[in-house]
């Protein structure tokens, strides 16, 4: 890999395992100095004795790179401020933030607890805000920077038993777009990426029926490290015109996702009554209604 990010400093959250680890190593291979953040929590956010961020540092150093570990929680405002300062203290600046940290607490909606909802939104959506907001003044001051936020087709399309996760991930796409709009005048860009990868985050998918087994076998072909090259490219100066977009990376496939726009219109000069909505507007709009698709209903082909 060429040194596309030579002289730059990156912070990756959730960088100790899976997709995050692959991105951390790729950032370093491209020449960036890296702060590898990972709380070392279980999938449900429960504490673990492991410190996976520390395990990534020797791998980065073996590539000839520089890195430091951080164990703070992205859900905590002060910890997010501290991890950004760690980058500046260790390497003198910060140029890249990759918001990758996440947890799962899946439950069918009518059984989901308030705590399960709050915990997932706190880590994913609030965590993206906390870390991005901590880096924003540095990006503004230096006149540039790149945010990459991990979204998911669970939010962009839909999935079963993930109302908390889906809400957070769709919120991340909107947050990314808002950051892009607000900070474009400072040369700061912000994009969202939906990674397709077999990691701990998807290892809990049901695997009982023949159809479920077939889907899991297909998902196991999705390699976490295939996401990293695209993220590195987004952070490079050569992609300085790319902002406010939502992408997907699925092994060797790169997708650009649509963003909500009006697709059909109904107008009535004299205004609407409930009856005319039922009799006229809904029949006009109904042909363009979306089905209750899940991610697997849209991405039906095997990854290659």
Indicate the topology.
Layout (H helix, E strand, L loop, with lengths): L8 E4 L5 H12 L3 E5 L14 H11 L4 E4 L6 H15 L4 E4 L14 H29 L2 E6 L2 H4 L6 H21 L4 E9 L13 H10 L8 H8 L10 E5 L2 E4 L17 H12 L9 H4 L6
Parallel strand pairs: 1-2, 1-4, 2-3, 4-5, 5-6, 6-7
Antiparallel strand pairs: 7-8
Helix pairs in contact: 1-2, 1-8, 3-4, 4-6
What this model shows, in words?
Residues 8-204 form the Ketoreductase domain. InterPro entries: KR_dom, NAD(P)-bd_dom_sf, Peroxisomal_Beta-Oxidation, Sc_DH/Rdtase_CS, SDR_fam. It comes from Paraburkholderia elongata. With 304 residues, the protein is of the alpha/beta class. The chain has a single domain (9-259), classed as Rossmann fold (3-Layer(aba) Sandwich), CATH 3.40.50. The chain is 41% helix and 13% strand. The protein contains 10 helices and 8 strands. The chain has an 8-stranded mixed sheet with strand order 3-2-1-4-5-6-7-8, with helices on both faces. Strand 4 (96-99), helix 4 and strand 5 form a beta-alpha-beta unit. Helix 1 runs parallel beside helix 2, helix 1 packs across helix 8 (228-235) and helix 4 (114-142) runs parallel beside helix 6 (163-183). It is globular, with a radius of gyration of 20 Å. The mean pLDDT is 92.
